[in-house]
Design a protein that fits this description.
Keywords: Dioxygenase, Iron, Metal-binding, Oxidoreductase, Vitamin C. GO terms for molecular function: iron ion binding; L-ascorbic acid binding; procollagen-proline 4-dioxygenase activity. This is Prolyl 4-hydroxylase alpha subunit domain-containing protein. This protein is α+β, with helices and mostly antiparallel strands and 231 residues long. It has one domain: q2cbj1_9rhob like domain (Jelly Rolls, Sandwich). It has 4 helices and 11 strands, in the order ββαβαββαββαββββ. The strands form 2 sheets. A 7-stranded antiparallel beta sheet has the order 1-2-9-6-11-4-3. It has a 4-stranded antiparallel beta sheet with strand order 5-10-7-8, with no helix packed on it. β1 and β2 form a beta hairpin. The longest helix has 13 residues.
């Protein structure tokens, strides 16, 4: 499909509630094959060769359509509340230890507002490993055994958090805060590395409680620098 022929239309996808506390929803086929291909191509053009690529204010119809879909999924959220999409590449020597996406109270002014929700979408995976693990949400065979097509279910599962298999096109959505609006430690996740020679590409999408705008940051450890996007 050519870029000029692309139309931003709604399509059918399937949702499954994996956990209620915290709320974690799995979305089958949230992105279309052409959209995935387009995002991956954006990581391979120009100077964008690092393991993390921020799609800062990309004006392509595909990127804008994807951002709008993430907003619509949350019903009351406007697209202006969503950070520019961030792509992440994982190789066998890259692993993210458990971390949370929400901000501490002292950091809210610096980052604009709280990240209330996260989408993590698998764009590509040629590996049998590379799971996304919610380390504080224990695997329960009674609750999670019916999801073994998307979760890792083996003899070690009961000793670990729920682990999502990397399946291209599918998305995990969760709320980062509890009912009081406080950061929820149960949402801590770890991105496991793929097997040797493998590659996983994911898409992070973060929703803020307010219209997204932050001051320009100076270090890679800070939130990625951006300006308010005009969608």
């Amino acid at each position: 499909m050519s870029r000029s022929a692309y139309k931003c239309t709604d399509h059918r996808y399937k949702t499954r509630i994996i956990s209620r506390t915290p709320l974690i929803i799995y979305i089958d086929k949230f992105l279309l094959d052409y959209e995935i291909q387009h995002l991956i191509e954006l990581t391979e053009t120009g100077h964008q060769t690092s393991s993390t690529v921020d799609l800062e204010c990309q004006k392509t119809p595909v990127v804008k359509c994807i951002a709008q879909r993430f907003a619509r999924f949350q019903a009351t959220i406007r697209v202006e509340h969503i950070e520019p999409l961030r792509l992440v590449k994982y190789t066998s020597d890259q692993k993210y230890e458990p971390y949370v996406d929400w901000f501490l109270e002292a950091d809210l002014e610096k980052y604009g507002s709280q990240r209330v929700a996260t989408f993590f979408t698998y764009l590509y995976a040629n590996c049998s490993q590379g799971e996304t693990e919610f380390v504080n949400v224990r695997f329960n065979k009674f609750l999670h055994g019916k999801f073994c097509d998307i979760l890792v279910c083996n003899e070690n599962s009961r000793e670990l958090g729920i682990r999502f298999r990397p399946i291209a096109g599918n998305t995990i959505f969760w709320y980062n805060v509890d009912e009081q609006g406080q950061g929820d430690v149960l949402t801590a996740r770890a991105e496991q590395p793929p097997e040797k020679g493998g590659l996983k590409i994911g898409l992070n999408t973060w929703t803020h409680v307010e219209k997204f705008f932050v001051k320009k940051m100076r270090t890679l450890d800070d939130i990625h620098s951006t300006i308010l996007c005009d969608f």
